[in-house]
Structures are given as C-alpha cells and as structure tokens.
Amino acid sequence: MERGVALLHSFGYTIAQMQFEAIAKDDPGCAMAHWGIAMTQFPELWQHPDEAQSKRGEAEMAKARALAAPPAKITPREQAYIDALSAFFDPAKTSFQQSADAYEAKMNALHAMFPDDVEGAAFDALSMLASVPPGDASLSHEHQALAILVPLFASHPDHPGLAHYIIHTCDTPALAPDGLAAAREYARIAPSSPHALHMPGHIFARLGMWQEDIDSNLASVKASEKAQAAGEPGAAHQMHADEFLIYAYLQVGEDEKARLLTSRMAAIGQQMAAMPGMDDMKDGGPLFANELNAVYAVEMHDWKSAAALRPSAGSPPGESFDTYWGQGIAAGHLHDAKLAASALAGFDRDGDAMKNSPYAAYFVNSFGIKRDELLGWQALADDHPEAAVTALRRAADQQDKLGQDEVDIPAREMLGDVLLLEHQPAEALAEYRVALKLSPNRLNGLLSAGNAAEQAGLTDQARAFYGAAARQTSSGANSARPELAHAVQVAASAVAAKTD
C-alpha cells in the first residue's frame, strides 16, 4: 500500500494502478485498494479524466464505499479518504471544476481532522493545485499549498510527494526560486522514477539553469529506457524528457543535438504507441512532435521551414495547434498574409477540438495567449504593425501573469521582435529586458537584447548581452547561427580591447 501511494506521489499512474489491483486481488476486502485504483484515474495536473477514466473511477469508489459499509471495520481516516475521492467521482457533478472543488473541500476537511497525516497533507496541497480555475493568476491556491508543503518538507525531507508538489506549485516565474531546494532533492528521493528524475527540470528551466536541466532530463531518459528494458511502465516518459532536452539544448547552442532529437520525436511517439499495454503519456507522440517541430524552427529563425510545417502523421484532432502556431509566426516574418490567415484558421479549428479533449485543462491558459500571438503576426503580415504590437502586448501581459508554457517562446520576446523589425530598438530592448527577467538566460532573448542595444547605440549593454550569450554557448562552438557568431565576435573584441 505504501509503495502504491509513493508511486502516486511521483505520478507513476500505470504502475501504481497495477500495484493497487494486486492488493485488491490479494485482499478482496480492502476498501482502500479500490481508492488507490480510482486515484490512478485522476491525473490531477496532467489532464481531466476522460470518459473511460471517469467510469472506472466511479466504479472503483462504489466498490470502496461498499467494502467500507458496516459491519466492516474501517478507520475514520480511511473513511475520510473514501469520502473525498467519492466527491470527485460523483456522476452528479456536471463539470470538472465542480468535482475538483468538491474534492478539495473534502481534502481540506481531512487535513484538518488528521493534521499529523503527512499523506493527507500532501494530497490536500495537490488538490489545491488541481482546483485552480482557468485564467486564475492570483497564485492564491499556490500560496495555500506552499503553506502546507514547505514546513512539512523541512521535517520530512525524504517524502516524494512533498518535494514533487513543491516543484509543481513553483512552476511559474514568480515562485520558481522557492522551488529550487525541492528540485535539488526530488531526484535523490525517487531515483527509479522517470518522472521524478525529470521534474527538477521544471524549476531549472524556469531559472535558466540549462546544464542542470539537461542533466536532469538525461537521467530521466535513462530511467525510461531501463523501464522499457524491464518491461515496466514508464518508457513513454522519455518523450517529455526529450521535450525539455530539446529546449535546453537550443538555449546552450547545442543545435545539432536539438535537431536530431526533434527529428526523431515522431518515430519515438509511434514506437511508444505500439507498445503492448498501457503506459503514462503513451499516446502523446503526435502532440510532442507537432510542438517540437514548431519550437525548433521558430527558435532557429528558420521561417521557411516553419511556414512549411505540417501536422505529424496520425495526429488526432486537437493535437496540431502548435503546427499552425509555428506557421503563423513564420507568416508574420515572411509578410505572407495568406499563410497567416490559414494558420489562424487551422489554430482555431484544432483549438476547438482540443477544448473538448481531456488535455484541455493543460492548455487552457495558453490558448488565448497563443491566439493573440497569431493575431499579432497576422497583423504584421498584413502591414499593420501597430495592431501587431497591440495584440502581442496583450498576449505578453497575460502570459506574464500566468507564466509561459514549459517549452515556449515568450510572448514579450515576440513583442520585442516586432518592435525591432519596425526599427524601434530602444522600445524593443525594454521588452527583451522584461522577457529575460521572467525567462532568464534564453539564448534568443540575450541575442535579441544585444542586437537592440547595439542598434540603439548602447555599446556596453550590447557587449554584456552578447558576452552572456557567448559564455552560455561555449562561444558558439556547436551552432551555426549567424546572430550567435556576431555576438561571439563582439564579445571577443570587447575582451581584446580591455586586454590592450
């Protein structure tokens, strides 16, 4: 039972389900085994339960309640857990938000009733994160969760759930520094979990700690490969780790490593989908491939390749919106009004499909932001730069409050790009500075800020930005980007001048 709960705490849902099913088989009278199975149908921060998960969760909680009914001997604490999850898997609830709010209320009560129950405290904090309403930028739920998690983690430094949930709670620019201590510990606590080995990368990426991010996700890939070799669930976590690796490699100028991983993502996704049995993230291949093909082309400023993007083969409805997002950004840079219009139409079409999928919760905050970004690039393609600035500023202001997606191009950086294209370097530099504060050490942010400063005649500032980019990329040793070569040249000449 403890192993099953530990697996839940590291989001190893498939293997946790197997564990709880084994308990139910060995001990048919164990009500909590069915609670555990139902918990695996509620991936709280990944997605809303789909129809099959909802039905399974409802059925398992019905069994749990039946086994807990008199004359069965069940503790008040166990009954509280069953009552809480029954409130979520209640067919009378008409929306996920209603279910999540009801579950949080019950978990709040459980935590108040049993304050010494560390598992209850951890799951209570997680319930607060799962019930954050779409578009809520107040961070009130996050601060409530941290008030529970941080003191407990200090006294229970080996607890996987406390460390894991602190990282998730702090996975936003405003809170990221508060998650660093947990990020440095979580992999040590659960070294066999691919997800646990990956999770510190969330904080490292937010703080621009790219080598730590790379190390974390390489370890996660190795754990996924080990799980696959052993025939255990966890192999598909490799796609999420590769997603972070590609992004981090791009920030340190390891462009060929990023290109190779990106080119392999579709094939890896097909391999994972063909695996027998179930596995966490198993069906996510097309979504990852579409996202990463777009991100790679946009990060490399390869506008022709971005314009030619097509959804990965076999992409279900609702999983190609990043393809059209990449097309739309390229259309703005290429001043291709026809492509900009078709990209926006494709984004809306795919976005509508996504809104009806279990993954809607994961992307709900970013849809509006990305759509405003596309409106901005469409306006630029239509030669309306003022409208482009207005739309991108709206996207940036919203993203600053909510935080950008895990693997994303900051909207404020795009705003700076448009201002620079419109020959407003001082104004562009101001936007790049804000973008770099919220997304530290992004390579294109440093290069673009250096360019803007250079155009504005701020030579010392340009050298500082270019110097940071050079140091971050080993002086561009593994990149052929012309803007990076220029930055390295300027930085080197500045050093030579000081030496002379």
- Helix-strand makeup class: mainly alpha
Mean pLDDT: 94
What oligomerization state is this entry in? single chain
Kindly state the percentage of residues in helix.
Answer: over 70%
Into how many domains do the coordinates divide? Answer: 4
Overall CATH class of the largest domain = Mainly Alpha
Radius of gyration: 24 Å
The CATH architecture of the largest domain would be Alpha Horseshoe
Write down the overall geometry: elongated
Task: Note the main attributes of this structure.
500 residues, mainly alpha, Serine Threonine Protein Phosphatase 5, Tetratricopeptide repeat, 4 domains, 26 helices, 72% helix, elongated
Summary of the model, kept short:
With 500 residues, this protein is mostly helical. It has helices spanning 2-9, 13-26, 31-39, 51-68, 76-88, 96-113, 118-130, 140-155, 160-169, 180-189, 194-198, 200-206, 210-229, 237-251, 255-273, 285-299, 303-307, 321-334, 337-355, 360-381, 385-402, 411-421, 425-438, 443-455, 459-472, 482-499.
Would you give an account of this structure?
- The protein is mainly alpha-helical.
- The protein folds into 4 domains: 1-190, Serine Threonine Protein Phosphatase 5, Tetratricopeptide repeat; 191-283, no CATH class; 306-409, no CATH class; 411-500, Tetratricopeptide repeat domain (Serine Threonine Protein Phosphatase 5, Tetratricopeptide repeat, Alpha Horseshoe), CATH 1.25.40.10.
- It contains 26 helices and no strands.
- The protein has helices at residues 2-9, 13-26, 31-39, 51-68, 76-88, 96-113, 118-130, 140-155, 160-169, 180-189, 194-198, 200-206, 210-229, 237-251, 255-273, 285-299, 303-307, 321-334, 337-355, 360-381, 385-402, 411-421, 425-438, 443-455, 459-472, 482-499.
- The longest helix has 22 residues, at 360-381.
- It is elongated.
- It starts with a helix and ends with a helix.
